[in-house]
Description:
- The chain is mostly helical.
- It has one domain (13-154).
- It is 75% helix and 0% strand.
- It contains 3 helices and no strands.
- The longest helix is centred in the last third of the chain and has 46 residues, at 109-154.
Amino acid sequence: MEITDNQSVALSGEGIAHLTTARRWASFLTIAGFIYVGFSALAFITSLLGGRSVPVPESGIMPSTLTTLPTTSGYNIGMLIVTAVWCACFVYMRRFVTKSRKALLNLDSNELTESISSLLISCKIYVIYTLGSLAIALLLGIIFLPLLLSNILNN
């Protein structure tokens, strides 16, 4: 069923309660998500500046060696993309939280529509990221599974 512009939908008390609960959970997820994004950004910066530890068998010491972007570029670019995607997802989810709170306080249907639109964008980003991750995992599986099986069969 499609709703035209001159029709409207009202929320019942139970619907408002569900929306409030969803808003609270989304708020929790955005806080946890931004903490994750912060740690990911810190790990990205650390990998650019501080490098990896390389074991030295003779002394058992693990000195820190300076790495540059070209030596770990695949890892760093991947980490940067994942961090950016999750940050965008959490930004739109945060918009849902703030706009739905404002909409319920002011009983503003336009604000509620904008909040649900932000939630929809957040969900789309999550779905695109998930499908992309699955496609990459499948591709890597197709590439490396024959190598792994041939290694196992040859031993």
